[in-house]
Amino acid sequence: DTGVSQDPRHKITKRGQNVTFRCDPISEHNRLYWYRQTLGQGPEFLTYFQNEAQLEKSRLLSDRFSAERPKGSFSTLEIQRTEQGDSAMYLCASSLTVEEPQHFGDGTRLSIL
Amino acid sequence: AQSVTQLDSQVPVFEEAPVELRCNYSSSVSVYLFWYVQYPNQGLQLLLKYLSGSTLVKGINGFEAEFNKSQTSFHLRKPSVHISDTAEYFCAVSAFYGNKLVFGAGTILRVKS
Hints:
Number of strands of chain B: 12
Shape of chain A: globular
Distance between the termini of chain B: 41 Å
Helix content of chain B: under 10%
Radius of gyration of chain B: 13 Å
Strand content of chain A: over 45%
Strand content of chain B: over 45%
Oligomer: heterodimer
Number of helices of chain B: 0
Helix content of chain A: under 10%
Order of helices and strands of chain A: EEEEEEEEEEE
Number of strands of chain A: 11
Shape of chain B: globular
Number of helices of chain A: 0
Largest sheet of chain B: 6 strands, mixed
Radius of gyration of chain A: 13 Å
Structural class of chain A: mainly beta
């Protein structure tokens, strides 16, 4: 069990640029989640995959956000035309079943200049 | 829908003293309950979970929590804290067979020597 891995750990970009984050879940976990955490707040749910199917999306996931999990293993989260309000920690989690707790990665911290 | 209220944003306590971090939740359906801990610039680590059964749940690092269905509470306790317990603690719920965690805003525990 190598844990959930996220890359990069930090991303600094200019407003208007596109960014992409990667998440590698625990290998046998078929459930994968993305959350966003802003300063002083708890994580907020963005989206959920079961294998390669994206089964739930939050209203927080605007049209500028897209997530994929093409082969049911790693996942990517892309933000197009970044805005100041996108600055946050983006957390990925995975789990084996709905009853099992979600295991979190260390997150990608996005800073928009 | 579910919501979580953590009643204290910060809790200062002296080393070796007991501590209680309070969590109340609201849900129209049955839920699973969790406490996570987050150290600076890291992801979330599971402390303990309540799925069913005994309402007193023991977790890692000497923490325990008690589920009170009538008061819709899930308070976290530790009889004697250490400096190393200084971190932010999040209470979270998920609906039975739900696909996401709903988090509280977090409580920062500051342990002083």
